[in-house]
Amino acid sequence: MIVAIRRIDLIRRLMPGCVLSHPAQVVNKLGLPEAAAIRGRHVGPAIAAIIVSLLRRRSLKEIGWKVGRMKWLVAGWVIPVAVSFAAYGLIWIAGLGTVPNPTFLQRARLTLGMTSQSNGLVIVAAFV
After folding, report:
1. I need a surface site. Which of 1, 19, 71, 72 has the fewest CB within 10 A?
2. pTM of the model
3. Contact 26, 40 (CB under 8 A)
4. Within the chain, where are the H helices?
5. What is the C-alpha separation between 128 and 124, in angstroms, rounded?
6. How many CB atoms lie under 10 A from the CB of residue 108?
7. φ and ψ at 3, to 5 degrees?
8. By the 8 A CB rule, do 103 and 24 touch?
9. Which pLDDT score is estimated for 37?
10. What are the angstrom distances between the C-alpha of 101 and each of 63, 67, 105, 108, 123?
């Protein structure tokens, strides 16, 4: 007896394990910096879950993705930004640091493999 495998089941079984759990290989073939490949490994399972849920026409709420109360969403964005501004503001006002720190830029360029990009792009890439 031949068992027919539905296309969606085949995609569900193969996609997360073969493609999206190793996005670093795909990203490296695109010629992006190594840091992008490393970050790709972290989002692979999430991308796989979203794609499979959409293909199976399941709500993202079924896998735990839902919008919380607005109070906590705002707090989750405002508190870290406020603390960062306070900490870095004190450092810059006290003269203990420069904007941007040349040592940070040099190390970030080497780490991210972005030797010829602008300072702004290196800073954004380091924190994204």
Report:
1. 1
2. 0.40
3. yes
4. 7-14, 23-29, 34-55, 70-93, 102-112, 119-127
5. 6
6. 19
7. -100, 120
8. no
9. 62
10. 42, 37, 6, 11, 10
What is the rounded distance in angstroms from the CA atom of residue 119 to the CA atom of residue 109?
A: 9
CA 61 to CA 67: how far, in whole Å? 9
**Segment 8-61, tens digit of pLDDT:** 555 555 554 444 445 455 555 555 566 666 666 777 788 888 888 889 888 888
Cα separation values, 95 from 77, 92, 108, Å: 27, 5, 22
Tokens 């203990």 correspond to what residue?
A: 96
Q: Retrieve residue 55's tokens.
A: 């293909």
Structure tokens at 53: 């849920």
Q: Check: CB of residue 29 under 8 Å from CB of residue 11.
A: no
In the numeric block, the tokens 């990009």 are attached to: 117
